[in-house]
Amino acid sequence: MGFEGIGASVRRKEDARFLSGRGHYTDDINRPGQLYAFIKRSDRPHARIASLQTAQAAAAPGVVAVFTGADMAADNVGGLPCGWQIHSKDGSPMAEPPHPVLAIGKVRHVGDPVAVVIAESRQAAKDAAELLEIEYDDLPAVATTLDALEPGAPTVHDEVAGNVCYDWHIGDKAMVDAAFARAAKVVKLELTNNRLVPNAMEPRAALGDFDTSSGDFTLYTTSQNPHVIRLLMGAFVLHIPENKLRVVAPDVGGGFGSKIYHYAEEAIVTWAAGKLRRPVKWTAERNESFMSDAHGRDHVSTAEMALDADGTFLALRVATIANMGAYLSTFAPCVPTYLYATLLAGVYKTPAIYAEVKAVFTNTVPVDAYRGAGRPEATYLLERLVDVIAHDTGMDRVEIRRKNFIPADAFPYQTPVALQYDSGNHEMTLKAALEAADFAGFEARRSAARAKGKLRGIGISTYLEACGIAPSAVVGSLGARAGLYEVANVKVHPTGSITVYTGTHSHGQGHETTFAQLISDQMGVPIDQIEVVHGDTSKIPFGMGTYGSRSLAVGGSAMVKAMDKIIAKGKKIAAHLMEAAVEDIEFDKGTFKVAGTDKSKTLTDISLAAYVPHNYPIEELEPGLDETAFYDPKNFTFPGGCHVCELEIDQETGVVELVNFVAVDDVGRVINPMIVEGQVQGGVAQGVGQALLESAIYDSNGQLLSGSFMDYTMPRANDLVNISVGTEITLCTHNPLGVKGCGEVGAIGSPPAVINAVVDALKEYGIRHLDMPATGAKLWQILQANRPKMAAE
Amino acid sequence: MYDFAYQKPASVADAVKLLSEDPEAKALAGGQTFIPVLKQRLAKPSTIVDLGKLDLRGITIGADTVTIGAMTTHAAVASSKELKAKIPGLQELASWIGDEAVRHRGTMGGSLANNDPAACYPSAALAMDATIKTDRREIKADDFFQGMFTTALEPGEIITSVTFKVPQKSAYEKFRNPASRYAIVGVFVAQHANGVRLAITGAGQGGVFRHTAFEQALSANFSPDAIAGIATPPDDLNGDIHASAEYRAHLINVVARRAVAKAR
Q1: B121 touches chain A (CB under 8 A)
Q2: Percent of chain B clearing pLDDT 70 (strictly above)
Q3: Facing B243 at nearest CB: one of A705, A706, A777
Q4: pLDDT score at B261
Q5: What is the mean pLDDT of residues A746-757?
Q6: Is B251 on the interface with A (CB under 8 A)?
Q7: Which of A653, A657, A694 is best to mutate for the B interface (most B CBs within 10 A)?
Q8: Pairwise CA distance, residues A698 & A435, whole Å
Q9: What domains appear along chain A, each with residue ranges and CATH number?
Q10: Is the pLDDT of residue A124 over 80?
Q11: Distances from the Cα of A408 to the Cαs of A421, A426, A431, in angstroms?
Q12: Which helix (H) or strand (E) holds A500?
């Protein structure tokens, strides 16, 4: 066995079962006597439910029950709660309209659950659902972010006039206004951040079970955070105390944020299982995923930078309208505020920043965090704006970045928008990326491409993000209704193998390997003797789950703390066994030594003594070697880096082809370079998808036009190019591992690099900006409407 | 999907009988369109008549014609070395339909009978003056395609084989829908001794059509330049969230030129 500690590209332990079809997902779980739920969803964007007759459906063959919103209300089922409260500029709390599990009175988006049919088979449930008699009185709908604010726009919730959820701001407005007043130049850019559908490979599923002997509920669900679901559903929706509710998130096939939230279907199957005293399963069909998984992004923004005469950034002013959809999803309000506007300093030392964010309701699927969550929107805005500044001023786009970078010696750096960056070196990642991409040699490649009818461009993005969420007291003061620490329970078994129970959850990230490597590195135990357990509230201590690139930075730090406790206790046992002073015991890679002697004990000697305490300091020390630690981070972590995209546009069709993509990221200490590379490549693929291909398109009446893979363009392998991943490291200064997180950097850094490259390719056409996605159809139109400013050779 | 009866007849005659006796019965060939339609509950057939047992597979290469059994899969067409030597455009077309799984189930007869306006095969049938043989007659491709999802087939009529005239040169070029990978514009060009036939799929509101202006120009001069200046009016073309009618009109010229350039 080779080296498998920190820094080793160990093959992922979990892949054997995933690649051989032996993964165990929610829909693989079946309970005796199980029933199947089919959710009848609204096909109307906005309507009053004039009548809802269930008798015929309920009488259909195989049907056990039909439930509506009225049935749930009669049973005192609560609405779906929102986990974050934002306050508007004027101090008032955000509008928080009710979010019933099943619609009551009105439907507010296509896909809004109206009724549930529960039957002996899926087929029977679906057949019976066609017998539901629903009469709708259609209401005018509002679908787009901008339309929501039009005077006289239809109102999504009667109690929310003007559709405004909140009107929030951050930063020093007076200071920014003053800087604009004295600026030598102001550059302004209007842009949208396109709405996306998450499309995890595994559709959501939920199975509710009720134990008639104990009265315990179990929910098996596709979740990134089973304890959060237990808390929200138990406390706010179904009123089941934690001791009677177990939530299990087994293998989960991708989440990207969309499986953080507490969804209606989880409450429906759990509640129905209790009512019917039988297990109830629901599994989404792909078309349901499109209309019920929380969407991502959907911002419309105006950004203005005030510059002095030599291109130094003086102040940034941003106004953003963010689409919340029809209801507030679990963490929706924090995404366009504290996960977005606090990132507007980026990698630059802009001294004054002011941002206003208006969140609006529309008759669309709720919008919430999607890989990167707010940070891709901030990065896209800033990195596009910087390129437009270069365009408008004639300055070099690399030089203007360098001129405004926070210098490497300025860390820790306090931004004007709340965050304090602990470490980073943006010149280092920029330099490495430009070299790896042969940026200097680009113009020759542009000319060669032109000779074959291709418009070639190169784009860069120098970005920074905040992850490793988050210090509980800080987020609490900003409106979070939860703590964001993490927890680990490390059990050293009698013969020295280890099980670690983590509050984080792996749904593609490779935690079973990375965490095993981390434990192995500290404890000197081979990774095949280390088991990582997650996803079951009956096994793991109360942790907050996985999102925001937090698992290693926060969850891994909790493991380090737990291992510290194990080692401290082990030293006491070793001191007893070797008749030495505790202060003289040294621990290194699984061996306890008496300093300066050849006396030593292995971890197994110690664990055996701990569980078979015949010769043991039993008066001073409890038996066992089992420690739990909670870790609340002191700060966010701040990964950053530089992405370079090179591409060609077919002049005749407008179609973009990537020719090179280089990502150089500073993710802090790397545990498994191969997993980091995969995480970055996956993130870049999603970023390229957003930049070139993906778009959730609603018509003006609120119908989702891109509601299937026939019309929603996911990136495929042949839309991509080899994504070269490099890392240049500065360590996080405030967590014990020096790690920053790598799950989201790809999706955050890449979209502006791609669009900057597209705009660069269109240089001769005088294009200043275009919105994502840069499809062939859109670029062809631009090529038609604009003639080259200089004749192409 | 809705419940239905299932039959798998052993002869064409039996299949025709089953389909003719029951107007609600539907034939199942490869099912690559039909099964998704059933799964989405967009069709409610009484009986599904599976044509899988019929002996309608195989590629017969003649001197001037190629005949392909209706139940021959796209994969079989794509992997035939003999066909590739004889009509490279047709082999290439088949190799680009759907994905590997689709190509191993989907059939030529199924595709032609469905006449999806974005399907690939109809353009090959038109451009190679194909004869579509059914259980009861022969239909020229020019008469077969009668608008989107509409053909000359009578109720219960089953395609048994398709005979293509072997061109001197042929090529298929496809501009894919970025999401579905169906044709936004697909062009099959075939140079025959008596002139060029060129058919467009994916673009027309009425489904596949021959582009007579291109055909005339290419019959006089088989080169991309010959059609470079010929614009296609967008009036009868499709427009959707992926491509406007104007973009399709433009792409017809680009894709046709590329097809001509690579014809062999």
Answers
A1: no
A2: 100
A3: A777
A4: 98
A5: 98
A6: yes
A7: A653
A8: 42
A9: 17-139+201-254+259-292 (3.90.1170.50), 299-469+635-785 (3.30.365.10), 485-631 (3.30.365.10)
A10: yes
A11: 11, 7, 13
A12: strand A498-502
